[in-house]
Design brief:
It is built from one helix and five strands. The chain is mainly beta. It has a domain of about 35 residues: Complement Module, domain 1 (Ribbon), CATH 2.10.70.10. The protein has a three-stranded antiparallel sheet, with no helix packed on it. Strand 4 and strand 5 form a beta hairpin. The radius of gyration is 18 Å and the shape is extended. InterPro entries: Hemin_uptake_protein_HemP.
Length: about 60
């Protein structure tokens, strides 16, 4: 009998409790550097509205409508 041990603690966590898994699939991850591309602000169009995602002076993210 072989007993396998998980590589990390998340492997034993049900997918419903893992923030990186939605409906059994991994959530895509985008690096903020790729998103901002040397800018401090990007606009996101969603359902007819424009949202602004900004980097603060302390490198925090703020999303506003």
């Amino acid at each position: 009998m072989t007993i396998s041990t998980p590589r990390n603690a998340q492997e034993n966590t049900p997918s419903a409790a893992r923030p990186d898994v939605v409906a059994g699939q991994a959530v895509p991850r985008i690096n903020s550097r790729d998103l901002f591309r040397q800018m401090r602000e990007v606009e996101i169009a969603h359902e007819g509205r424009i949202y602004r995602l900004r980097l603060t002076q302390l490198n925090k993210l703020i999303l506003t409508a």
